[in-house]
Every structure is written in C-alpha cells, then in structure tokens.
Amino acid sequence: METQNEQWSSKLGFIYATAGTAIGLGAIWKFPYVAGTSGGGAFFLLFILFTLLIGLPLLIGEFILGRKTGKDAISTYKELAPKSAWVATGWIGVITCFIILTFYSVIGGWILIYLMNAITGQLSGLSVDQLGVEMGEIIANPWTTLGAQLVFILLTIIVVAKGIQQGIERASKVMMPALFVLLLIIAVRSLSLDGAMEGVQFLLLPDFSSITSETILFALGQALFALSLGISIMVTYSSYVPKTQSLPLAAGSIGIMNIFVALLAGLIIFPGVFTFGLEPSEGPQLIFVVLPAIFEQMMFGQLFLIAFLVLFLIAALTSAFSLLEIIVASRVKKEMSKRQKASWIMGIAAFVCGIPACLSFGVMADVEIFGLTFFDAADQLASNILMPLGALLISIFVPLKLSKTTLLNELKQGSSVASKLFMTWYFLLKYVTPFAIIVVFLDALGLFSLF
C-alpha cells in the first residue's frame, strides 16, 4: 500500500484478501476450541445468528466509512467527526490490533514449529496421546516458542515494510481457493472416522440448556473476531475499494465464507475429538493435536499435513499483515518514507509485549491476571471487551454521523440491490446491533441477567 489512493486490482481480489484477514486463525484455529468450550451446536447457532444479524450489517458499515473517506482508521473518524471524541474509535481499533498481534504471533510460531516437525517426520507415527505430549513439550519450551514467534513477526514486518497490497491480493487469490479445497478433502476424511457422527451431533445439534450468558458473549466475540470487526481493519481495507465494488455483495460473500470455513473446521476437528477420546474443551492447542492424528489415518497423510500447515501459515501471515498494516497505516499516513521504520518499531514492540503470552504455557503458566494467563487475558480483552466495544461505537457512529441519503448513495454504487436492502440493513445496524452488544455487555458485568 504505497499511496493512499491505491486500489485493489479486482473485486474478487478484495473479497479474498478481506476474507483472508480473519479466516486463517479466526475460523480454523479459534472457532473449534471456543465452540468446544462453549456448548458446541448451541454456540455454532448463536455464531451464525450474530454473524448475519450483527456482523454483516456492521461489516457493511465499516466498508462505507473506509470507501467514503479513503483514509486509515484514525483519520477516517477525524474527517467525519472533526475535533470530537469519536477519534477514540479509531484508536481502540489500532490498540486492539496490537494486542491481537501479541498473542496471534504466538500461534503463528506454533504453526512454524509444527511445519518444521512435519517436514522432518517428527510427527509421523505418533498416537493422539503422544501428540498431546508433543504439543505440551513444544509450547512449554521457552526458547523454541520465542524463536518461532520472532520468526513469524519478522516475516510479517518484512512484508509490511515493503508495502503489502499486491502481496496480500496475489497470495489470497491462490491461498483462499486452495484452502477451501484442502479443507473439504480433510473434512470428508474426518467424517469417515468411527466416532464422526458423535462429533457432527456435538457441532450441529444445539443443546439449548448449555447456553449461558458466557456462551452468548463468546459467540458474539467470535462473530466479530471472525470478520475482524470493531477494530477498523475493514475501514482501512475498504479505503482502497473502487466505487464499482458492490459493498453488500462483498460483505455477504465474506460472511458466507467465514461461516462455511468455521463449519468445515468444526467438521474436521470434532469427529477426530470424539474418535480419539479427547475433550472438546481441550483449548487453544486442540487443532495441533487432532489434525496430525487425522492426517496419520490418511494415505499420503504426512504430505497432506505439510500442505495444510503451509496454507495455514500463509493464512495466519495474511491476517498478521493486516493487523500490523492497520497499526502502521495509522502512523505513517501518506508519508511512505516512514513505513519501514514504523513497521520495524511496531512489529518488534508487538513481539516484546507478546513474550508473556508466549510463555503462558510454560515458565509463566502460573502467573495470572484476574485469574487468567497472559495469553488468555490478551485474548479475552481483545475478543470479548475491546472488539465488542469498538463494534458498538461504530454501529452508533455510522447512522449518527452519516445521513441516510449519504449511506444509501454509497451503498448503491456498484450494487443493483442496495435500495431494496437499505432499510433492513439500516434498522439492523442502528437498533439491533447496538442493543445486542449492550445487553451482552451488561450481562457480562452482572448488571443485567439473561438467565
């Protein structure tokens, strides 16, 4: 992104790149373990409802902000609400991106370690129990995990420092279709396992008695996390969108892809969980134990595992590029001469601040903040507090600061169905989205009882 007026070279490229921002770890890594700890099918149902009724309206709102101003997260709010406190919305987005990058890079490091272990054959022939032990040893080793986290951050910095638009778009056009195809293949294989149906029932048959206020909060947080909402990533990305792009079509495509990938991830993980006698609530490392076990049962399993980890790494890096880019873009504005310096400073700062999260599974496992490890605390702060807060502010800001006429005109550009959808979208964004977020927030604080 060398200049502020640069645009995506194609409509499909924008959709793939934007979807790739979150699909990497949001759907493939985080969804299965959050669903596993939050009720399975009931959580998945809430996730879909929140995605459609809150996520998509908000995504379109962020798209409108970015395309209308053509500026970064902070500058967008400064332009539309000059000399007001609304600029804090942009700052919340940038700070949240920084926090996410601190623990996101930890998972990126794990992927790098697993990729190297898969290439060298160290994961071949291991049982589920042995894979669990292997995972525990890997994440508890401070030097290995810190080194891998640093490499992941350095890769991110190098790309962002050079300007990443062409890299993201070109990689996404190849990566996203390939990831979908490979996920489908693995899901089919996973569904053929002995305990598959038990896993499918866990994911697709809601047990409404398992729904708690915490489940609702986590589902809302996951819907926002999966679409990278509330942190103005989509504001910055859409600032490069031409007027010929249909914003509703782009948002709908991204939303469907996110739900589909989350479904595939669940259909891959949970049949393996029940087949191999694991607990769905295993936690963040679930995918690193179950997937290798599934691949071990497949013909050419090691090759498939390597291919998946490569694609998973690319998806994770694409998301990391976005996180760091939003931070850097907010600092350099149009002064591209500052890009390299800002990229290195903010990237290294994210690594340093992410060290406690990296060590949360080893030497700092007993160090807690409000009863949570550093890793979990960063995740909870970003996913369940700052992202919903940012989403609430944006849902209020868009209809408050932009007139209906302005919003309709922006939506109509490139879209033949915007006029028919406008009032439904406007109602959801102005009333349903903020109300839902406020209720969940109050319940989380113990000020309002859902149950």
Automatic annotation (TrEMBL):
GO MF, one example: symporter activity
Q: Does the keyword Chaperone apply?
A: no
Membrane topology listed for this record: Multi-pass membrane protein
Q: Where in the cell is it found?
A: Membrane
Q: Report the Pfam families cross-referenced here.
A: SNF
Q: Which residues form a coiled coil?
A: none
Q: Note whether RNA-binding occurs among the keywords.
A: no
Protein keywords: Membrane, Symport, Transmembrane, Transmembrane helix, Transport
Under InterPro entries, the record lists: Na/ntran_symport, SNS_sf, YocR/YhdH-like
Cellular component terms, GO, for this chain's entry? membrane
Per the UniProt record, which residue ranges are transmembrane? 12-31, 43-65, 86-116, 143-164, 176-196, 216-237, 249-278, 298-324, 344-365, 385-402, 423-448
| Family from the record | Belongs to the sodium:neurotransmitter symporter (SNF) (TC 2.A.22) family.
* NCBIfam families hit by this protein: Na_transp (NF037979)
Which protein is depicted?
Transporter
